[in-house]
Write a structure and sequence with these properties.
The protein contains twelve helices and nine strands. By secondary structure, it is an alpha+beta fold. The strands form three sheets. The chain has a five-stranded mixed β-sheet with strand order 1-2-9-6-3. It has a two-stranded antiparallel sheet with strand order 4-5. It has a two-stranded antiparallel ribbon with strand order 7-8.
Length: 314
């Protein structure tokens, strides 16, 4: 753990070791209340993130406390729903087929974003249709928490973020979990498909990968998630104070052996509801792509009539 502390100015701890992260998230006093805005730079950091990942004053589920009952009920309900969807994911699924064709050599980065967003969106609205505008909105929202400098406070920037959130929220009927899924979480899944396409392109080794192994190999954790201390304590000889902000560097932690739990924070109160659905989607897409054949297809990705989406370059 690496701590940066200047009294009254900043108090932040960066945590990238999987064991330290596991222990830390078990601490009752390490939470997502985010009600302490001091020291000064801690407040700036939290304010920027909370503004970006809230809609009309309501935080997205990934920024809500362990004691938030609405979050708890919603998370459990979504977990069960996605587990059911994971069990039924097969190569006959239209979104699986479209992603498999992209993997097979059709489509650019923008098209992958659109197809992934559409697959995630249909977990919340069956008729969800992604397009270049909704994908651009997801890019804007994903970048918003990390915006720095004067530009981050400009009216134009704030207006763009607000419009992006509203567009994405409208497409999932205001479901905040759906907004997070189609605007933030999907970017880790996009990384997974990029990794999968690289592996698929190696024809000499393609057959060595089972779809179960691919489902693990192509998982990507969020780069960083935030927690804040609600009381003083100590971990691994690193004391912390009330309001200390923790940057849990899950992306770095995931690279350690036996640290795949960093992707979804399995067995913790804040586990991701998609912990089974995401690997199931990756496995289904790989299997479908392998069934298509060895020769790359030509042309452009065509959408089924019930789920047509635009695929222009953003």
């Amino acid at each position: 753990m690496k701590r940066t502390r200047f009294p009254g100015l900043i108090d932040i701890v960066q945590v990238s070791n999987p064991e330290d992260i596991r222990e830390l998230v078990r601490h009752r006093q390490v939470d997502r209340r985010f009600d302490g805005r001091w020291p000064l730079l801690n407040g700036f950091l939290l304010g920027r993130v909370l503004r970006a990942l809230s809609l009309h004053g309501r935080r997205l589920p990934t920024l809500r406390s362990r004691d938030d009952q609405d979050r708890n009920v919603g998370q459990e309900s979504l977990w069960e729903k996605l587990n059911d969807r994971a069990a039924s994911l097969t190569a006959t699924n239209p979104d699986v087929q479209l992603l498999a064709h992209w993997l097979h050599g059709l489509g650019n980065d923008s098209e992958l974003g659109i197809l992934t967003q559409q697959a995630v969106g249909r977990l919340f609205v069956a008729s969800y249709t992604a397009d270049s505008a909704s994908w651009e909105a997801a890019l804007i929202l994903n970048a918003a928490p990390n915006a720095k400098g004067i530009a981050a406070f400009s009216p134009r920037f704030k207006r763009r973020v607000k419009m992006a959130k509203q567009m994405l929220a409208d497409k999932v009927n205001g479901d905040l979990a759906g907004l997070h899924g189609t605007g933030v979480a999907l970017h880790n899944l996009v990384k997974g498909f990029h990794r999968m396409r690289l592996l698929y392109s190696d024809i000499s080794r393609r057959s060595e990968w089972t779809h179960e192994a691919i489902g693990k190999e192509c998982l990507f954790a969020p780069t960083v998630v935030l927690r804040q201390a609600t009381a003083a304590s100590e971990q691994s000889e690193c004391p912390y104070h009330k309001n200390t902000v923790f940057l849990l560097e899950l992306g770095s932690a995931q690279r350690h052996s036996d640290a795949k739990d960093m992707v979804f924070l399995n067995e913790t109160w804040s586990r991701c509801p998609a912990e089974k659905w995401v690997p199931a989607l990756l496995e289904a897409v790989w299997k479908c792509a392998c069934d298509i054949g060895a020769e790359p297809l030509r042309g452009s990705i065509s959408q089924p009539a019930h789920g047509r989406s635009q695929t222009e370059t953003v």
